[in-house]
Amino acid sequence: MALMITDECINCDVCEPECPNDAISPGEEIYVIDPNLCTECVGHFDEPQCQQVCPVDCIPLDPERPETHDQLMKKYRIITAA
Question: By residue range, what is the domain housing residue 18?
Answer without folding.
Answer: 14-78
